[in-house]
Amino acid sequence: MNMAENWDECVIIDLPNLEGIQIVWSPAYAAQLLSENWPDTNGRSYSAALNACTDAMLGAASAAPAREAFLAAVEEAKIKTLR
Question: Among residues 61, 63, 1, which one has the least CA distance to residue 27?
């Protein structure tokens, strides 16, 4: 498994505390956004997404479930998605 496995389809979000939209192609970037710029770090989906994205980033899990977990965290935090 490739450590830097990217997603087949990007996730485009508008985080309130970052300027401009964020185009997320990889679990590594998703994990960075989750750990450094997430508006709500108390939700269950947030924790699951951080774990899934970190595992995928390290090559311990595949990228697709990490993307689903990230989307759940996006929805949970009511972050605007553009794709």
Answer: 63
Q: Which of 59, 55, 51 is nearest to 3 (CA)?
A: 59
Q: Are 79 and 13 in contact (CB under 8 A)?
A: yes
Give the pLDDT score at 83.
Answer: 77
State the pLDDT at residue 1.
43
Q: What is the spatial distance between Cα 83 and Cα 74, in angstroms, rounded to a whole number?
A: 12
The whole-number average pLDDT for the span 68-77 is 97
| Partners of 23 in beta bridges | 12
Alpha-carbon gap, residue 43 to 3, rounded angstroms: 27
Classify 16 in phi/psi space as left (phi over 0), alpha (psi -120 to 50) or beta: alpha
In contact, 10 and 23? CB cutoff 8 Å? yes
pTM score of the predicted model: 0.92
CB 83 within 8 A of CB 21: no
